[in-house]
């Protein structure tokens, strides 16, 4: 039996709020406006120190680039779509795009996507489930 | 400041040498380069060794144990796919600084087959397939698709890179793969990461290459100017900030920045360059670097490969060695092996694949990963 409290985030910037809801923690530089996943002390875009503020990354964005992966490491199920998404409000993430056929004809550039949170099917050595973010066309997985 | 020269250079044929060690392969290339210069290890004042996969295992010192422990400075470098070129450049800088007159640079790698890297994180989590993909073919496929998005570059245009480079390889006895691959075969090969099929991916091989680098005074003193090649530019850049930096490593801006520095240092433009060995780790990469290095305007790379101008006999031949797609890509060796290719042309010794009248050549390597960064080295060489 697992619950949200025992879930492990797949990446350090995936956090859970008090109600167990997942969100993506980020930072925005007050000097140059650059958005990065996770917390930062120094901005990697402009080098400003101590000017970054914590934000929640926007959960909507647009497909920037992708590939359809057919050959991967042993044990990884293929094909899957490895996507790069530009988030509204700044920042870009890599991730797996769900809810779209693995066919270039059906993967339009700039397609609006949203971030969804799902169990990954993987568990830690202690049996805690890893939860990750994924991309999906808006509304496709509701 | 006086010029710096390559006075000896060679590479072993790239291939699979499971019975050899990294030090043994590096030593073999080092001796070949010393022979090419007519010098011995006792003439060398320092060794610069590039190796990635055994970066913490003192490969430079181990090579000296094979070829002569003269007690000289040994510097070991690791810098992704720019590892060998970085080692060479460090040697060149030391000569420019006036510390040495004659140094040896060696790049060497022994690699397994298949995809680089592994899936599992230290906490046991497998990111691959969940957080997209971190494989090399996937990253460079995304780079290619980014180009398609902007300019409509097609799968067929990317595939033509493999057709061209594999054709070139039939004239290079030191390439791992030496056979023609017609367009239909390239496009129908196993899809690895769309649009890169298996024949559009560089081969993981073992290899080593080495160069003897000399100051102008040493080159003259030793009477080596006849076969010497002058280094007109040697530039290194790290991946600059881009808004996508946490999602997709930058191979474009890092290359553009490096190219600008190199052209400035050499006082040249792309129009002065007769041939290029650029980093075709995947077919998609070659096309984006046409634009990054200034061979054509933004958006024109697809038309440039279609035109045949980058094939041997064309306006600006690219990867006449067969490139990494055919030669293979032993990470640490690649950056010196492409200097070997250019030097061979500038010496008019490339036989069947000779670029006629070659006076100026350029080498380019770039590598990195999404969670780390990127590194790029460009050299411009001139017939002395």
SSE pattern of chain B: EHEHEHEHHHEEEHEHEHHHHEE
Bin the helical content of chain B: 25-40%
Distance between the termini of chain B: 16 Å
* Biggest beta sheet attributes of chain A: 6 strands, mixed
Helical region count of chain A?
0
Number of helices of chain B: 12
Shape estimate of chain B: globular
Structure summary, number of beta strands of chain A:
10
Helix content of chain A: under 10%
As residue ranges, the low-confidence spans of chain B are none
Give the averaged pLDDT of chain A, no decimals: 94
Distance between the termini of chain A: 25 Å
As residue ranges, the low-confidence spans of chain A are none
Biggest sheet features of chain B: 9 strands, mixed
Biggest interface reads: A-B, 46 and 40 residues
The SS-based structural class of chain A is mainly beta
Number of strands of chain B: 11
Q: In percent terms, what proportion of residues of chain A is strand?
A: over 45%
Order of helices and strands of chain A: EEEEEEEEEE
Mean of residue pLDDT values of chain B: 97
Draw up the topology in text.
The complex is a heterodimer of chains A (142) and B (384).
Chain A: E1 8-9, E2 14-16, E3 22-29, E4 35-37, E5 52-56, E6 60-69, E7 80-87, E8 92-97, E9 112-123, E10 129-137
Parallel strand pairs in A: 1-10
Antiparallel strand pairs in A: 2-3, 3-4, 3-5, 6-7, 6-9, 7-8, 9-10
Chain B: E1 4-11, H1 22-37, E2 46-50, H2 59-67, E3 73-77, H3 83-96, E4 102-109, H4 136-151, H5 155-169, H6 183-188, E5 191-193, E6 196-197, E7 207-215, H7 216-221, E8 229-238, H8 253-266, E9 275-277, H9 283-292, H10 301-307, H11 323-327, H12 331-346, E10 360-369, E11 373-383
Parallel strand pairs in B: 2-3, 2-4, 9-10
Antiparallel strand pairs in B: 1-7, 1-8, 4-7, 5-6, 8-11, 10-11
Helix pairs in contact in B: 1-2, 3-12, 4-9, 5-9, 5-10, 9-10
């Amino acid at each position: 039996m697992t619950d949200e409290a025992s879930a492990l985030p797949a990446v350090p910037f995936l956090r859970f709020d008090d109600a167990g809801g997942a969100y993506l923690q980020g930072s925005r530089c007050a000097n140059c406006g650059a958005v990065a996943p996770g917390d930062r002390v120094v901005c990697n875009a402009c080098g400003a120190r101590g000017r970054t503020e914590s934000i929640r990354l926007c959960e909507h964005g647009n497909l920037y680039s992708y590939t359809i992966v057919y050959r991967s490491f042993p044990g990884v199920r293929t094909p899957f779509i490895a996507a790069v998404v530009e988030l509204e409000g700044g920042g870009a993430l890599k991730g797996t795009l769900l809810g779209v056929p693995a066919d270039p004809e059906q993967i339009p550039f700039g397609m609006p996507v949203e971030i969804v949170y799902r169990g990954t099917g993987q568990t830690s050595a202690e049996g805690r489930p890893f939860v990750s973010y994924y991309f999906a066309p808006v509304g496709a997985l509701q | 400041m006086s010029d710096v020269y390559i006075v000896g250079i060679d590479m072993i044929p790239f291939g699979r040498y499971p019975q050899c060690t990294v030090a043994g392969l590096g030593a073999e290339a080092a001796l070949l380069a010393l022979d090419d210069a007519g010098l011995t290890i006792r003439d060398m004042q320092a060794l610069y060794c590039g190796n990635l996969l055994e970066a913490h295992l003192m490969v430079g010192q181990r090579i000296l144990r094979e070829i002569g422990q003269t007690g000289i400075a040994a510097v070991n470098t690791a810098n992704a796919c720019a590892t060998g070129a970085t080692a060479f450049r460090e040697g060149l800088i030391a000569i420019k600084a006036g510390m040495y007159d004659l140094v040896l640079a060696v790049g060497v790698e022994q690699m397994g087959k298949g995809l680089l890297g592994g899936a599992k994180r230290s906490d046991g989590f497998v990111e691959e397939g969940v957080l997209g993909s971190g494989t090399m073919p996937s990253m460079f496929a995304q780079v290619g698709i980014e180009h398609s998005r902007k300019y409509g570059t097609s799968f067929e245009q990317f595939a033509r890179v493999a057709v061209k480079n594999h054709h070139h390889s039939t004239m290079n006895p030191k390439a791992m793969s030496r056979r023609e691959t017609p367009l239909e075969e390239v496009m129908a090969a196993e899809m690895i990461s769309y649009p890169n099929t298996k024949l559009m991916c560089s081969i993981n091989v073992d290899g080593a290459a080495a160069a003897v680098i000399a100051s102008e005074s040493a080159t003259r003193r030793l009477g080596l100017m006849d076969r010497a090649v002058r280094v007109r530019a040697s530039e290194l850049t790290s991946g600059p900030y881009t808004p996508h930096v946490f999602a997709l490593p930058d191979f474009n801006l890092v290359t553009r920045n490096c190219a600008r520095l190199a052209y400035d240092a050499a006082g040249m433009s792309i129009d002065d360059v007769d041939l290029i060995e650029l980093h075709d780790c995947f077919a998609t990469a070659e096309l984006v670097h046409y634009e990054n290095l200034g061979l054509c305007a933004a958006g024109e790379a697809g038309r440039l490969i279609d035109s045949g101008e980058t094939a041997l006999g064309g306006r600006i031949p690219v990867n006449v060695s067969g490139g990494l797609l055919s030669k293979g890509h032993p990470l640490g060796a690649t950056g010196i092996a492409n200097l070997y290719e250019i030097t061979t042309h500038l010496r008019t010794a490339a036989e069947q694949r000779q670029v006629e009248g070659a006076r100026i050549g350029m080498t380019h390597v770039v590598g990195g990963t999404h969670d780390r960064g990127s590194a790029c080295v460009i050299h411009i060489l001139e017939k002395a």
